[in-house]
Design goal:
CATH topology of the largest domain: D-Maltodextrin-Binding Protein, domain 2
Keywords: Coiled coil, DNA-binding, Transcription, Transcription regulation
Helix content: 40-55%
GO molecular function: DNA binding; DNA-binding transcription factor activity
Number of domains: 2
Distance between the termini: 74 Å
Order of helices and strands: HHHEEHEHHEHEEEEHEHEEEHE
CATH architecture of the largest domain: 3-Layer(aba) Sandwich
GO cellular component, one term: protein-DNA complex
Strand content: 15-25%
Pfam families: HTH_1 (PF00126), LysR_substrate (PF03466)
Number of strands: 13
Family: Belongs to the LysR transcriptional regulatory family.
Number of helices: 10
Shape: rod-shaped
C-alpha cells in the first residue's frame, strides 16, 4: 500500500516539474524524493516519470496518480483537522436517551444548550425506559441516559457504568376531587384498600412498586386499567374510574384530581444520569451539569409549594 510520503512526492514533482523544487516543499533532499518515486514505480510495476539529466516529465500514469494523490491527501488533511477539533471539544457527538417524563422535564435544557452553543456537535435523543437505554449506554449506542429506579424496586446496574443521582422525587396518590379521602390531611396506605386502581403494565417497575406499597398497607390492589401512557391515568382518575400512584415528574396540573403524597423514605423514585465509567467524551460533564440544574430547579419548586395531604 502506498504511503502518504510517496503520494506527496508524486503529487509535488508532477505539480512543480522538478525534483529539487518538490524536495524543498517537502523538506527532503532531492535524492530522498527520487527514492520515494522509484519505490512507487517498483511496487506498481509502472513508470511514472521520464527522466533526463536536467528534467523529469510525468507519464500518463504519473499524471493520473498525482491527481488521485491530491484527492487522497486532501482527505487525510481534512480527517486530521476533524480529529483535532474533536480533541478541542469543538466537534463530536452527544447521543442521549431518557424515559418519557424526564425527557419532558429535564432533557430539553440539555438539547437546547448544545444545539445553541455547540452547533457542530452531533446531538441526538432517543426515548426509552431503563431496560432499553442502559444496555444502549453499555454498548456505546448512547453516550448518556437518564434512568430511574423506584425505592421499593432497587436495581444493580452494570459495573462498567457510572450513575449520578439527579433527583429523588416523591410519589403521589391521585384521587378524584370529592373522593372520600380527598379532604383528609393524613391517611394510611391501608385506607386505599378496596379502591379500583389504574397502573402501568405488569412488566414495569411502576407496577411492581405499586404491589410493594399496597402490601405494606395489608392489601393487594385491584388493577382494572393498565396503560403505558403517562397522561391517561390522570384522565381516568378525573372521571372517577379509579386511583393511581404517579411520580412527581409525571404530574399534570388538574383542578379535578387531588394529590396525596406518599410518606416514607422508600416511597420515592430516584432519577439518575448514567454513563460509561471510562468514556472520554468531553461533552458528558457539561450535559450532566445541565441535567443537575434542571433537577435542582424542580426540587426548589417543590419546597415553595403548599404541602399536600400525606399517606403513611
Amino acid at each position: 500500500m502506498l504511503t502518504p510520503t510517496q503520494l506527496q512526492a508524486v503529487r509535488d514533482v508532477v505539480a512543480t516539474g522538478s525534483l529539487r523544487t518538490a524536495a524543498r516543499l517537502l523538506g527532503y533532499t532531492p535524492s530522498a524524493v527520487s527514492q520515494q518515486i522509484s519505490s512507487v514505480e517498483r511496487a506498481l510495476g509502472v513508470q511514472l516519470f521520464e527522466r533526463s539529466p536536467r528534467s523529469v516529465r510525468p507519464t500518463a500514469a504519473g499524471v493520473q496518480l498525482a491527481r488521485r494523490a491530491a484527492r487522497l491527501l486532501a482527505e487525510l488533511e481534512s480527517a486530521e483537522d476533524e480529529l483535532r477539533s474533536f480533541a478541542a471539544a469543538e466537534r463530536g457527538r452527544l447521543h442521549l436517551g431518557s424515559f418519557w417524563s424526564a425527557g419532558f422535564r429535564l432533557v430539553p435544557d440539555v438539547l437546547a444548550e448544545f444545539l445553541r452553543d455547540r452547533p457542530q456537535v452531533d446531538v441526538r435523543y432517543e426515548e426509552g425506559d431503563p431496560q432499553t437505554t442502559v444496555p444502549a449506554v453499555s454498548e456505546g449506542r448512547l453516550d448518556l441516559a437518564v434512568i430511574f429506579e423506584y425505592g421499593m424496586v432497587p436495581h444493580n446496574w452494570p459495573d462498567d457504568l457510572e450513575t449520578i443521582l439527579l433527583l429523588e422525587e416523591p410519589l403521589y396518590v391521585l384521587v378524584p376531587t370529592g373522593h372520600r379521602l380527598s379532604h383528609r390531611k393524613r391517611i394510611r396506605v391501608g385506607d386505599l384498600s378496596g379502591e379500583r386502581w389504574i397502573c402501568y403494565r405488569e412488566d414495569t417497575d411502576a407496577a411492581r412498586s405499586l404491589l410493594h406499597i399496597c402490601a405494606e398497607g395489608g392489601f393487594r390492589p385491584e388493577v382494572l386499567f393498565r396503560t403505558n401512557d403517562y397522561n391517561l391515568p390522570f384522565e381516568l382518575v378525573r372521571k372517577g374510574l379509579g386511583v393511581a400512584i404517579v411520580p412527581e415528574l409525571a404530574l399534570l396540573a388538574s383542578e379535578e384530581v387531588h394529590l396525596i403524597r406518599l410518606a416514607g423514605p422508600a416511597h420515592v423514585r430516584r432519577v439518575f444520569a448514567v454513563r460509561r465509567a471510562a468514556d472520554p467524551n468531553p461533552f458528558l460533564d457539561g450535559a450532566i451539569r445541565t441535567l443537575r440544574a434542571a433537577a435542582d430547579a424542580i426540587d426548589a419548586g417543590r419546597r415553595t409549594r403548599p404541602e399536600p395531604p400525606i399517606a403513611v
